[in-house]
Amino acid sequence: VRSSAVLEADLTWTGHHFERGVRLAIGENGRIHDVGPLDREPTERLRHQALLPGFVNAHSHSFQRALRGHGERFPRGAGSFWSWREAMYGVAGRLSQKELFEIYVTAYREMLRKGITTVGEFHYFHHHAENDFAFDDVVLSAAREAGIRLVLLQTFYETGGIGKPLAGAQMRFATSDLSVWWKQLEHLRNAADPATQSVGVVAHSIRAVPLPKIIELHQEAVLRGLPFHMHVEEQRQEIEECVEAYGAPPMRLLNDTLHVDQKFTAVHCTHSDPLDLERFCASGGNVCITPLTEGNLGDGIGPTKVLRSPETFIALGTDSNSRISMIEEMRWLEYAHRLGSESRGIFVEREGEGSVAARILAVATEGGARSLAVEAGALTPGAWADLMAIDLESEELAGCDLETLEEALVFGCGDEVISRTMVGGRWLT
Ligand SMILES: [Zn+2]
Fold first, then answer.
1. Given pLDDT bands bounded at 50, 70 and 90, which one contains residue 394?
2. Exposure string over 85-115, b if 16+ CB within 10 A, otherwise e
């Protein structure tokens, strides 16, 4: 593969720290061809900038971007997750294809400006008219329009609570026949742009998919080598209903009935029993946390001891997109657990020591890439050339040096420091 460009910024993130004198050769195929002190002159010199891998947003319901600012006033007795969900259904019930396309493009462009180069779209908003799956192709075309890398996490959604039929706006999410569903997945796989788009398999949650179908979906996903995602234990109510119906909480049920591996991502795990979660993590599963959404919805904080372990694979997601900022998600991952445990240095690189910033940067990049099974999230040969540049001359970084830059970025900066974003070798912002 010939390289079409050689980039050199003042500083480059090489996985554990920023280094000087690193050049990045990018192939014509949109992938990183070579990294190091290459003996080729840069074709593009990024002065006063630092290069990092782009953020990987492992969990997004991007249509909920339309709800930003909504659901933040609280009539007496209406301040729960479930009342927010009613507001979301209000929006979901009325959108057209054209409106939806605009919402997705807006959300994806905002993500790109904030350094997010890959989005895992946990997509259950399928139908315009009954069972037409018209909204699925809207996601593919909107991502292509914006230029973001997309993993379309196609979601199975059958019930409105364990054993309960769907109602109202939920009919736009409805799937029931597995063979129809797999046929649609094949259609999407063929319609996807192979350079920037792939698909994954999702069972929405224990409240929306009967257990035998979760098992079937997961087995087939494993056979096809696709990533598998599921909401697990975000709300106490769903755990109680699950115990009543199946005799065990969701995570224990999954551990007992599925072969969890590194392609499995459990989203939230807020109220997971630490032992269940430990067992899940030991199998190689990923935990996706969405600190801003969980904070906004008042979900709670997952078990610190298990999550902080350097052996736990964590990814981050912008989820409801009430705010889109991976820098803020990173910081709140750490801060929520600092507040909960009244101590500092929670997500350190090694057992009990090391840099929080380096670990959390890995979570927001490599962790997401592992969860979505995309070759991105690190500046290594063969990976997609998905990058962001930060402006070393920005006000928020004044006074920082090479030694403190990663900490200053994670704890002291907003998205204004992100100057440019590249996906597949092409600058987009
Ligand atoms: Zn979600």
1. very high
2. beebbebbeebeeeebbbbbbbbbbbbbbbb
Cα–Cα dist 56/119, whole Å? 6
Query: Is beta strand 286-289 parallel, antiparallel or unpaired with respect to 264-268?
Result: parallel
How does pLDDT run across 235-249, given as a tens digit for each residue?
999 999 999 999 999
HSE-CB at 133 with a 13 A cutoff on CA atoms is 18
The model carries a pTM of 0.97
What CA–CA distance (Å, rounded) separates 251 from 254?
5
What is the maximum alpha-carbon separation in the chain? 67
The alpha carbon of 391 and the centre of ligand 1 are apart by a number of angstroms equal to 32
The label of the residue with tokens 């990663």 reads 406
Taking a C-beta distance cutoff of 8 angstroms, is the pair 272, 305 a contact? no
Per-residue pLDDT, averaged over 187-208, amounts to 98
Pair of tokens at residue 34: 């070579």
Q: Which of 54, 27, 126, 4 is nearest to 374 (CA)?
A: 54
Q: Is 373 helix (H, G, I), strand (E, B) or coil?
A: coil
Report the distance separating Cα 268 and Cα 51, nearest Å.
30
What is the pLDDT, as a whole number, of residue 206?
A: 97
Q: In angstroms, rounded to a whole number, what is the distance separating the alpha carbons of residues 346 and 84?
A: 30
Percent of the chain with pLDDT over 90: 90
Question: Which pair of tokens denotes residue 134?
Answer: 């018209």
- Kindly state the tokens that stand for 15: 């996985």
Q: State the distance from the centre of ligand 1 to the C-alpha of 423, rounded, in angstroms.
A: 25
Beta strand extents in 39-134 (DSSP E only): 44-53, 55-60, 116-123
Question: How far is the centre of ligand 1, averaged over its atoms, from the C-alpha of 384 (Å)?
Answer: 26
Q: What is the mean pLDDT of residues 248-256?
A: 98
> Closest Cα partner for 103 from 149, 56, 146, 59?
146
Calpha distance 46→421 (Å, rounded): 13
CA distance 336 to 308: 12
Q: How far apart are CA 190 and CA 179, in angstroms?
A: 17
Instruction: Tell me the catalytic residues.
Output: 268, 319
Q: How far apart are CA 62 and CA 92, in angstroms?
A: 12
Residues in the chain, overall count: 429
Ligand 1 center to residue 186 CA distance, Å? 23
What is the C-alpha to C-alpha distance for residues 122 and 142, in angstroms, rounded to an integer? 15
| 56 confidence band (pLDDT: 50, 70, 90) | very high
